[in-house]
Specification:
9-stranded antiparallel beta sheet, Alpha-D-Glucose-1,6-Bisphosphate, Chain A, domain 4, alpha+beta
């Protein structure tokens, strides 16, 4: 999936997962810095500035030091929109991407929550970035977002509710 902007096509990645936990638990875990930090198969991510632990709120930012695609990098993201406990959007304000937004949506369905992630991004380097998007970056980002969603799911479903 993609959408058009002034500079051409912007890749869009969507992911959906069912979580057997209340909506508020899922919403809070998805915006908890510690859930996104740590070593995984894909990255080694450490919060180094801004909100470095706990829940992120509207207007908060975090700077991450990470390894993606074998390259060490830093990027800062900011929570630019929030409707508790249904949706929040973070956007990269500093980093390698020309643009990058990630919308997290939460829908209550009986005793479970549907978490929907939508990422749109524009790579740097013009035509070279578009080639990278097509050859590997879209697939990498799809895998990365599914992995992050699984972390939220595991944490939420491990929580005991009273």
């Amino acid at each position: 999936m993609a959408r058009q902007d002034k500079g051409g096509t912007i890749p869009i990645i969507k992911h959906e997962i069912s979580i057997h936990a209340p909506i508020q638990v899922c919403f809070d875990l998805a915006r908890t810095v510690e859930v996104h930090a740590g070593k995984t198969l894909l990255t080694k991510q450490i919060a180094i500035d801004g909100v470095t632990f706990g829940l992120m709120e509207l207007g908060d930012f975090v700077t991450w030091e990470t390894i993606h695609l074998g390259m060490k990098q830093k990027f800062s993201s900011k929570i630019v929109e929030m409707v508790k406990p249904y949706r929040f959007t973070d956007a990269i304000v500093y980093g390698v991407f020309h643009t990058f937004t990630h919308t997290h949506e939460f829908i209550e369905r009986g005793s479970e929550t549907i978490m929907k992630d939508t990422i749109s991004f524009k790579s740097p380097l013009g035509i070279l970035g578009k080639v990278a998007d097509h050859l590997f970056l879209k697939r990498y980002m799809r895998h990365y977002i599914a992995h992050q969603a699984q972390k939220v799911k595991r944490g939420a479903e491990a929580t005991k509710y009273s």
